[in-house]
Amino acid sequence: MKRALVTGGSGGIGAAICRRLAADGRHVYVHANTRSEEARRIASDIATAGGSAAAVTFDVADRVASEAALQRILDEGAIQIVVNNAGIHDDAVMPAMKPEQWSRVIDVSLNGFFNVTQPLLMPMIGTRWGRIISVSSVAALAGNRGQTNYAAAKAGLHGATKALALELASRGITVNAVAPGIIASSMTENVFPKEAIDRLVPMKRAGSPQEVADLIGFLASEQAGYISGQIISINGAMI
């Protein structure tokens, strides 16, 4: 059974990804930072449904803590599927943005990608099979007012994805990123009312976490073995 780690697995999109990968027969590590109870609940739900999962807690922005947590996982075998889904918003227009707002968003989304992925690479390479998938955003492709830090962090993932794909192409490991647009959640309900979605999204609706999870499930499958170095949008034709 291939083993998968989903960072930010306790959130709406992350939970859907965890459930999809578990349904596909993967053992899933459901990661959280502050929402460890929710991660344990999701792992328990997966097990109750007949899947295999465990919760793991650490701050992806903390390199030392990440390495220690990942080593405990690696003691049980290589992780062959990594979904870098952890990310945060701390929005402000650039003239009013505080340095800590810039740094924390970069630390979680971009430095977190390195802190989680890099320690897993050599064991993954040893298996000659792997899938590395990062969750980006339409903001990285088109920009968004008040999200210079977030757009920069997610756009950084695009460059890292393409470069790492080249490094690992001969090792049976693919590296891709998925860039969602407006996805239905408790947060987006307050930020994007129906009239805003109708204006911004040609399909006139928000996407669902399950639709994002299904795309990631495909990219993590055997069938996606010739897709690598790609940034794949899922945004209802926004751009």
- The rough form would be described as globular
Proportion of residues in extended strands: 15-25%
User: What is the straight-line distance between the termini?
Assistant: 38 Å
Q: Main β-sheet, in a few words?
A: 7 strands, parallel
| Average pLDDT over all residues | 96
Q: Class by helix and strand content?
A: alpha/beta
Low-pLDDT residue spans: none
The rounded Rg comes to 17 Å
Number of helical segments with 4 or more residues: 9
Q: Count the E strands.
A: 7
Question: Which series of helices and strands comes N to C?
Answer: EHEHEHEHEHHEHHHE
Helical percentage: 40-55%
Strand adjacency order, main sheet:
3-2-1-4-5-6-7
Topology:
Elements: E1 3-6, H1 12-23, E2 27-32, H2 36-48, E3 52-57, H3 63-74, E4 81-84, H4 99-127, E5 130-135, H5 138-142, H6 148-168, E6 173-180, H7 186-191, H8 194-200, H9 209-219, E7 231-234
Parallel strand pairs: 1-2, 1-4, 2-3, 4-5, 5-6, 6-7
Top keywords for this entry?
globular, 239 residues, single chain, 49% helix, alpha/beta, seven-stranded parallel beta sheet
Write up this protein:
The protein has a seven-stranded parallel β-sheet, with helices on both faces. The longest helix has 29 residues. The chain contains nine helices and seven strands. Helix 4 runs parallel beside helix 6. Strand 2, helix 2 and strand 3 form a beta-alpha-beta unit. It has 239 residues and is an alpha/beta fold.
